[in-house]
Every structure is written in structure tokens, then in C-alpha cells.
């Protein structure tokens, strides 16, 4: 583990968002259960949400494998995955407006209890921004909905590369006119931090052991030599003197 003195050059913190800043699973299930009752549409919303997230990585990998098709933003990938799942689960009675509402559920995610207060503390000393695979509109709308106090919005869409491609981490540093070592990646996912560290960024891990509910299999604890390991955003702020 590195010492706090090694972090004196850090000027900006960039955050993974889904699972690290916001509780996507509980947010979506609760939203869809309420909405389904209002619309009179019955479905296993928990299975839909878990299945949807299960298609997440594969949908981005498909974009990587076919650069000739051009970059596809996450809202569009989410919509494609949703259409597959609606057919798989035989959910009936969904109009175009309903599919749009469900897709934009990802714009309406609630933060973890420590997120906003922790971000406010960190913002007092550092530039803070998402560095998420979510597209700019999604992240902007989510920030409005959840009260996330970002200084700017950085998205994979800006670089036309999804994490963990190097272009995302290095692109973020470049946009901020900083060296990679002046930027710290904050995430609840060891894989994200490993990619950031490989590209020269500093790293901070915060565990979110309920992100996937009973389906959680990894990321219960830090598995790499990260610069900071904390139980929540307040703990990161403590270690950075905020």
C-alpha cells in the first residue's frame, strides 16, 4: 500500500458510476415495480434488471469487435438489450413510450447513502467527474436526478471507447490537462482500477458488496495494491485530507 505522501500530486478524482456512486439494481427494480403497477403490466422485474446488467459487458464488447460499425452509445446498447429481454420474458403490452421509459431508468438511479456527502467533501479540494461507460446525456440526467455535484461530465462517449480501453483513462487525463498520475480513479470494481493503474492513474477502492444483491460474486474487497482502500466515500475524503 502506498503512503498518503505519494498522493500529493493528485488534482482530480474520476469515478466509476454504476455500482460505485449509484445503486443501479435497487433503483431499477423499485422504479419498474412501481411503474408496472401503474401501467398494469406484470413482469419479473428483478429478473429483467439482472438479465439486463448481464448483457452489459457483452454489448460493449460487440462495439469493440466491430469498429467498422462506429461507436454506439450506452443508451442505444441498453435499448437493444431491453428488446431482447422483453422478448425472452414475453412481456406484453409495451408501447414505444414504455420501452423508452424503461431504457431511461438508467438515467434515474439513486446514489448510495454516502455518495453525495462524500462527493461534496472531495469536491472541496479536487476536481470531480464521472468516468463512466454511460453516455453524456445519461450521466447528466442522472446527476440532476440524484443530486451528484460533478464539476464536469466525462463519458466513454467522448472518447468513443468503453472502459477498460486505455483511451478512456488517458483521454480523461488529457481533457483535464493533467498527467495520468495527477488523476485518481475511484471504483468499486477491482478490474476498473487495474486498468486505470496500468495507464498510470492513481487508484481508490470502495467496496459495494450489495451492488448485485444475492448475485454478487466479486469485488467484496480490494484485490490489488490500490493507493486508497476505504469503506465509503467519506473514508476516501478522510485519507485525502478533505
UniProtKB/TrEMBL annotation:
Keywords: Hydrolase. The lineage of its organism: Bacteria, Pseudomonadati, Pseudomonadota, Alphaproteobacteria, Hyphomicrobiales. The keyword Hydrolase applies. Gene3D superfamilies: 1.10.150.750, HAD superfamily/HAD-like (3.40.50.1000). Pfam families: Hydrolase. It comes from the Bacteria. It comes from Bradyrhizobium agreste. NCBIfam families: HAD-SF-IA-v2, HAD_type_II. This is Haloacid dehalogenase type II.
Amino acid at each position: 500500500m502506498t503512503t498518503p505522501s505519494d498522493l500529493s500530486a493528485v488534482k482530480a478524482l474520476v469515478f466509476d458510476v454504476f455500482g460505485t456512486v449509484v445503486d443501479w439494481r435497487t433503483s431499477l427494480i423499485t422504479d419498474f415495480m412501481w411503474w408496472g403497477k401503474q401501467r398494469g403490466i406484470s413482469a419479473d422485474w428483478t429478473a429483467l434488471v439482472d438479465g439486463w446488467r448481464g448483457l452489459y459487458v457483452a454489448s460493449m464488447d460487440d462495439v469493440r469487435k466491430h469498429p467498422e460499425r462506429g461507436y454506439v452509445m450506452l443508451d442505444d446498447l441498453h435499448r437493444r438489450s431491453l428488446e431482447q429481454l422483453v422478448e425472452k420474458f414475453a412481456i406484453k403490452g409495451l408501447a414505444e413510450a414504455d420501452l423508452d421509459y424503461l431504457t431511461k431508468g438508467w438515467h434515474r438511479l439513486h446514489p448510495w447513502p454516502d455518495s453525495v456527502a462524500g462527493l461534496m467533501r472531495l469536491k472541496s479540494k479536487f476536481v470531480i467527474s464521472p468516468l463512466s461507460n454511460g453516455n453524456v446525456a445519461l450521466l447528466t440526467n442522472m446527476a440532476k436526478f440524484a443530486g451528484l455535484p460533478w464539476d464536469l461530465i466525462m463519458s466513454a462517449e467522448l472518447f468513443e471507447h468503453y472502459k477498460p480501453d486505455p483511451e478512456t483513462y488517458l483521454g480523461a487525463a488529457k481533457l483535464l490537462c493533467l498527467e495520468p498520475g495527477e488523476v485518481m480513479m475511484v471504483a468499486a470494481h477491482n478490474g476498473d482500477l487495474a486498468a486505470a493503474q496500468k495507464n498510470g492513474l492513481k487508484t481508490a477502492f470502495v467496496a459495494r458488496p450489495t451492488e448485485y444483491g444475492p448475485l454478487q460474486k466479486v469485488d467484496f474487497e480490494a484485490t490489488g495494491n490500490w493507493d486508497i482502500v476505504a469503506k465509503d466515500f467519506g473514508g476516501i475524503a478522510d485519507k485525502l485530507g478533505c
